[in-house]
Specification:
OB fold (Dihydrolipoamide Acetyltransferase, E2P), alpha+beta, five-stranded antiparallel beta sheet, Rossmann fold, six-stranded mixed beta sheet
């Protein structure tokens, strides 16, 4: 396999007519890492992946792969390989010829390309099926063939566009583990687009969360989970509640904010002007069903939904300007003191379980 390459995206924009799909984003993807672009539909993640691949032209900015600027190079000259969502296998060719196709286009001799294709099929545990056609395979098997075909060119980076979206839930989890193992075995850079938070958390060394063509946060899964950078990240990842209000005071590294309903909350932080808008995030798994005391923060609200999840129970509460303030309790804690929809309850959390959220300049 060829060595992995760092990918450097420098002030890259994509403009379609009057619409800007990607707004001057900059990002370094370390060599040999597993990077997931994550975000809702239309956030710019697939356009960014296609610009790295060369399947989409760059409106402004540059992309470097290793030491080479690849901005104007065609896909085949970039040292990247792309695996498409649809797999795009040739129905009339057997698996060996499907995998060897790009080598045939490059004029590699038949015996050499078939030998290499068999090696790739062996890597994907698909060698016993070498003489079959794609229609004779399951979805998971077709995906392995598509991976083998992408990897036969010895790319420095493999680009994957929603590679697991067509698979059923059980196969998704199995293929997720295989992708992670494959990336570690090959040691090349993987860049993977997904709209699944769970998929990104399970796979990535680096998660890049996009919204409206901008990067909201680029960090490790743990950093994204524990310290979301913005209200969008906190809401999108689903593990923090967001309270929005205005700064009332700042003292000794603690900001006090007031929500429109009149309650005040504290968060560790500094450098915010009195009266300026502020968002804070509160970990859903750290919210307790207890009245706040002098050492904790909280409010009173009304239970709007209770969702049993087996080992945990999700309780949704309306209050403090939020319609869906969430507490995730262990099943043991919940059933020791159960609540129902319509109950008035008190919620509380510790100061250290609140995070001061930033804002992306637009």
């Amino acid at each position: 396999m060829s060595k992995a390459a760092e990918i450097d995206i420098a002030s890259v924009s994509k403009i379609y007519g009057a619409t800007t799909a990607v707004h001057a984003i900059s990002l370094k993807i370390p060599a040999g890492s597993y990077c997931c672009f994550l975000g809702p539909s239309g956030c710019g993640k697939t356009s960014t992946l296609r610009m790295i691949a060369g399947h989409e032209s760059i409106s402004t900015g540059d992309i470097r792969l290793g030491n080479a600027v690849v901005t104007d190079l065609p896909p085949a000259k970039r040292g990247t390989a792309m695996m498409f969502q649809s797999y795009a296998l040739f129905p009339h060719l057997d698996l060996v010829d499907n995998v060897a196709f790009s080598l045939k286009m490059k004029g590699v001799e038949k015996e050499e390309r078939r030998a290499k294709a068999l090696d790739m099929l062996k890597l994907m545990q698909m060698e016993p099926y070498a003489t079959r056609r794609p229609a004779q395979l399951s979805g998971g098997q077709q995906q392995r063939v598509a991976l083998a075909r992408a990897l036969i060119t010895d790319p420095e980076a493999l680009l994957l566009d929603e590679p697991l979206s067509a698979l059923d839930p059980f196969l998704k989890i199995r293929m997720r583990a295989e992708l992670k193992k494959l990336q570690k075995t090959l040691g090349i850079t993987f860049v993977h687009v997904t709209h699944s938070q769970e998929e990104a958390m399970a796979l990535a060394d680096l998660i890049v969360i996009m919204n409206g063509g901008r990067i909201e946060q680029a960090a490790s899964p743990r950093e994204v989970f524990e310290r979301p950078a913005t209200a969008f990240v906190a809401r999108f990842m689903g593990d923090h509640n967001v309270l929005t209000g205005r700064v009332v005071s700042e003292l000794n590294g603690v900001i006090t904010m007031e929500v429109p309903e009149g309650q005040t909350f504290k968060v560790a932080g500094a450098g915010r002007e009195v009266g300026s808008p502020v968002d804070i995030g509160v970990r859903t798994d750290r919210v307790r069903l207890d009245a706040p005391d002098e050492r904790s923060l909280g409010f009173h609200g009304v239970v709007s939904n209770v969702e049993y999840r087996g080992s945990s129970v999700k309780i949704t509460v309306a209050g403090a300007g939020s319609d869906d303030f969430t507490a995730i309790l262990s099943d043991g804690d919940y059933f020791a003191k159960p609540v129902q929809t319509g109950d008035a309850i008190a919620l509380s959390w510790a100061l250290e379980d609140a995070v001061l959220l930033g804002r992306v300049s637009g």
